[in-house]
Amino acid sequence: MLTIKQILEDKEAVIRGLEKKHFAGAREAIDKVLEYDNQRKQAQAKLDSLLAEVKNISKTIGALMKQGKKDEAEAAKKQVEQIKQQTVELEARKKEAEDARTQVLYTIPNIPYDLVPEGKSAEDNLIVKTGGHDTPLPENALPHWELAKKYNLIDFDLGVKISGAGFPVYIGQGARLQRALINFFLDEARKAGYVEIMPPTVVNAASGYGTGQLPDKEGQMYHCNLDDLYLIPTAEVPVTNIYRDVIIPEKDLPIKNCAYTQCFRREAGSYGKDVRGLNRLHEFSKIEIVRIDKPEHSEQSHQEMLAHVEGLLQKLELPYRILRLCGGDMSFTAAICYDFEVYSEAQQRWLEVSSVSNFDSYQANRLQCRYRSAETGKPALCHTLNGSALALPRIVAALLEDFQTPEGIRIPKALQPYMGCEMITAE
Question: Taking a C-beta distance cutoff of 8 angstroms, is the pair 194, 289 a contact?
Answer without folding.
Answer: yes
